[in-house]
Specification:
alpha+beta; Pnp Oxidase, Chain A; six-stranded antiparallel barrel
Length: 133
Amino acid sequence: MAKLSDKQADLFRGRNWGTVTTLRKDGSPHSTPVWIDTDGENVIFNTAIGRAKERHLRRDPRVSVVVLPAEDQQSGYVSVTGTAEITEDGAVDHINKMAKKYIDQDEYPYLQPGERRVIVKITPEKIDGMGVE
């Protein structure tokens, strides 16, 4: 398992967007912007059951994510490739934490009736980057 440096982890903790790439059934890449987080070891994002990235990851857990600093996107980036694990445990609390971080709201305002949230935890296998070591 690869390990994020403190500076790299800070980029995931900051108010920066990540772009997650999963693999479709035909093997082609599918990339989407996400609110991003880390627990210091793993990269974390939140999604809903039934969305493309959740379906893709249940079929094939290989995933990559890249994050750029919002303040100065020319200053570097971090890319993490690894394997995803999906859990519903704590997912609503986590999306509320992300809503506070990204839009300064205590609760995620876009939750739809019946929507089930999940946390996707990426265990880093490879970490690449530039300017953020």
